[in-house]
Amino acid sequence: METHKVSVITHYFIPKGDYDKIKDALKQIQDDPKNTLMHQYADLEEAMFNLEGLYRNGQVQSFYLGADLVGILVFDVVKYWWSPRRFLYETMVLSVDKNFHGFGRIAVRQLEKLAQKYSCAAICSGCMVDQNVPVVRN
Asked: For residues 88 and 120, is the Cβ–Cβ distance under 8 A?
């Protein structure tokens, strides 16, 4: 699929059609025993409740190919105790469409744009739900 046709939207609520796609993608991660933390400790209802709050705060960006959701990026702008500078913290990059390839790269480019927009010194990114995988898989 052509990644240059992907649009980015900041919603302040989870669109009705996106809710189930997001929850299903999180469920797949939770069900995978290789994702130890999510498999053992995740609570999908709690996750969706908290995600709704992140949407309200403008901390979620939704990525669409046409009208179809392909993924979301959840982020925060933080100041750590050890620096006077702001940092962009990647909370989650979630691909919701198995047929769409390249979402990780698109999310990284968006993180760079957000870091510039918010005058952040750096981007703090990592992956706590997977083990032994590169940061960007596709």
From this structure: yes
Sheet containing strand 122-124, strands side by side? 6-9, 60-65, 68-79, 86-95, 122-124
- Scan for tokens 């709050």, then name that residue: 53
Alpha carbons 125 and 91: distance in angstroms, whole number: 8
Dihedral, 39, 45, 49, 54 alpha carbons, nearest 10: 20
Buried/exposed code over 54-83 (b: 16+ C-beta within 10 A; e: otherwise): bbeeebbbbbbbeeebbbbbbbeeeeeeee
Residue pLDDT, tens place only, 99-127: 999 999 999 999 999 999 999 999 998 76
